[in-house]
């Protein structure tokens, strides 16, 4: 990757706890088709919870999820989580709640986009050995978990005071958009070559065409010199000063940074700015409420494990 190339990060803060994050991530990783048919050995009963079976495939599903999220897939912890999910299924049945299909579809779209599209999703699933059938079950488990916590703890809410306090405490790191620039760049080895590239641009040749002809950076060259949105702080000092102070458009002179010369095209930029509290207040309260309810559900699960009849095989 070229040293100037930096992904433009999503700026909205995500405050969900681990349970919600897992549900959202897996819910968004859609797919079709099913996994391989389970063998009798793979589908053996490994535990019972109040007489209901937890099977080896349930544990395998949790372990695949952990790999997908880049976490440890240790079997003992996965069995504990599979037992918790059975407890939650039983509580969902008692409360009369289900996994909302609309929520599942929404998350599928969101995280597929976050991962970079269907192809990137497929690669991530293959790397984690997570099948489409397992994924569908993961989606259901995550959404059901949230439905249970919302139904069980409707009075657990985060008020405006808590949301405001969080905003003030995290305004700088979570609610401030850093200065950024949408930049095009043609990177070359010498000033003379940079001036030749500028000459082509002055003759009316498209920036993308000249970038593909002259740039020594393969990634930028293939993109027609378009580096996308970059944080100003990520740029070397000479480029940062030029990109944040010059008029929009192609700079009249090449800029040197280290051993490389750049012909720059400033497409757009914005200064550092704080997202107003009014714009994030509602979402912030919703997310903080989700965190509080997830904690309450965790305490409920701890008690439910003690009260339930759990037998490990």
List keywords for this structure.
Chitinase A, domain 3; Triger factor/SurA peptide-binding fold; alpha+beta; elongated; three-stranded antiparallel β-sheet; 54% helix; disordered N terminus; 313 residues; single chain
Describe this protein's structure.
- The chain is elongated.
- The chain has two domains: 18-162 and 283-312, Triger factor/SurA peptide-binding fold (Orthogonal Bundle), CATH 1.10.4030; 176-273, Roll (Chitinase A, domain 3).
- 30% of the residues are buried.
- It contains twelve helices and ten strands.
- Helix 1 (18-27) packs across helix 6.
- Strand 7 (255-257) and strand 8 form a beta hairpin.
- With 313 residues, the protein is an alpha+beta fold.
- It is 54% helix and 15% strand.
- The model is unreliable at 1-37 (pLDDT under 50).
- Strands 4, 5, 6, 7 and 8 form a five-stranded antiparallel beta sheet that branches. Strands 2-1-10 form a three-stranded antiparallel beta sheet.
Named at the architecture level, the CATH assignment of the largest domain is Orthogonal Bundle
**Helicity, in percent?**
40-55%
| CATH third-tier fold name of the largest domain | Triger factor/SurA peptide-binding fold
pLDDT < 50 stretches: 1-37
Main sheet makeup: 5 strands, antiparallel
Shape: elongated
C-alpha-based Rg, rounded = 26 Å
Name of the CATH first level of the largest domain: Mainly Alpha
Q: Structural class of the helices, strands and pairings?
A: alpha+beta
Helix/strand order, N-terminal first: HEEHHHHHHEEHHHEHEEEEHE
The end-to-end distance, rounded to whole angstroms, is 50 Å
State the total count of DSSP E strands. 10
Q: Count of helices?
A: 12
